[in-house]
């Protein structure tokens, strides 16, 4: 009888130790990891969908229109004369024509 009680309390303490860690991982996954993965996926899709003539904003807040586009760099036309070259990853977001 004593051995049966010891065996059940041993398995109970094992689940009592592991269960909080599993619950913490689940909370971190759904509150931190999963939303960040969704955000990164939408950002990658936005960067891949860029084309000439799109109006964008850089991470530094510079507004411009895309003149040239390669895999790694973007050339922006800031005004009539000025063209600036940026890394493609420095683009914060594209501005749709409805916002202006």
Automatic annotation (TrEMBL):
It is found in: Cell membrane. This is Preprotein translocase subunit YajC. It is a single-pass membrane protein. SMART domains: YajC. Pfam families: YajC (PF02699). The keyword Cell inner membrane does not apply. Its main location: membrane. It comes from Paenibacillus sediminis. NCBIfam families: yajC (TIGR00739). It comes from the Bacteria. The keyword Transit peptide does not apply. Keywords: Cell membrane, Membrane, Protein transport, Translocation, Transmembrane, Transmembrane helix, Transport. Belongs to the YajC family. The chain crosses the membrane at residues 12-33.
């Amino acid at each position: 009888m004593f051995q049966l009680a010891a065996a059940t309390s041993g398995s109970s303490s094992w689940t009592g130790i592991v269960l909080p860690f599993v619950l913490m991982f689940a909370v971190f996954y759904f509150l931190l990891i999963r939303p960040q993965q969704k955000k990164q996926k939408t950002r990658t899709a936005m960067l891949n969908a860029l084309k000439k003539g799109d109006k964008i904003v850089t991470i530094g807040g510079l507004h411009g229109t895309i003149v040239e586009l390669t895999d790694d760099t973007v050339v922006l036309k800031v005004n009539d004369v000025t063209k600036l070259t940026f890394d493609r990853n420095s683009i914060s977001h594209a501005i749709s024509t409805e916002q202006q």
